């Protein structure tokens, strides 16, 4: 795998994961000094700043000769071809369900922080700072491991770290009458660490499958994750966020499904290599 691409993907994965984690913290700060409509005015201002920054300081780096023409029919054909690729489906599902185990807690943060942990609107950092810290630590390890540790080994270590986090979380919920910080949030940090090891590797495998359509493949991977996250936030989280045990059991199920899709991919690649041999 290209070292530069791996490093850039690592940085992108950090931002992709940190953004939904830090947003509730900022929202809590805004509610501390104003009413809820101020959150939307903040988003308007933030969007304007992003638009201006993109326009002024973010140049296009893709070579003109490598750019795809914006022809809707061709773009749709490319997207369909990528999405129907069985290997893409396995890898995108492994990445989406793996991150879904953490996003379930992010989507359930109001209930988890306010109702289960009995903290205030200004104390969301108790949950999100350890989560972001774990993600940053995992991204740092992933970057340091680039070119030194194989991708499959990093994915195995990442899933192992997340599994350990789930085991601790399950044990804590079984033994603790009332969840308390910091013990209740430690598994989130370890889970985020594991996800940060897995995500860049799977993303690189996906974009390397489609060298002429890297952007399309990456967009579809993100789309797959966003659809699952929308279902988690809009359907699943409201149903189970009132119970710490239901949260950990569901998160464990997401992790197991993600790991299952990854093992399916590994087995398929071994069969393919054996057939060619």
UniProtKB/TrEMBL annotation:
Residues 1-268 form the Major facilitator superfamily (MFS) profile domain. The lineage of its organism: Bacteria, Pseudomonadati, Pseudomonadota, Gammaproteobacteria, Lysobacterales. It comes from the Bacteria. It comes from Aerolutibacter ruishenii. It is a multi-pass membrane protein. It is found in: Cell membrane. This is DHA1 family bicyclomycin/chloramphenicol resistance-like MFS transporter. InterPro entries: MFS, MFS_dom, MFS_trans_sf. Keywords: Cell membrane, Membrane, Transmembrane, Transmembrane helix, Transport. One of its GO terms (molecular function) is transmembrane transporter activity. GO terms for cellular component: plasma membrane. Its main location: membrane. The chain crosses the membrane at residues 12-32, 38-58, 91-112, 124-142, 154-172, 184-207, 219-237, 243-262.
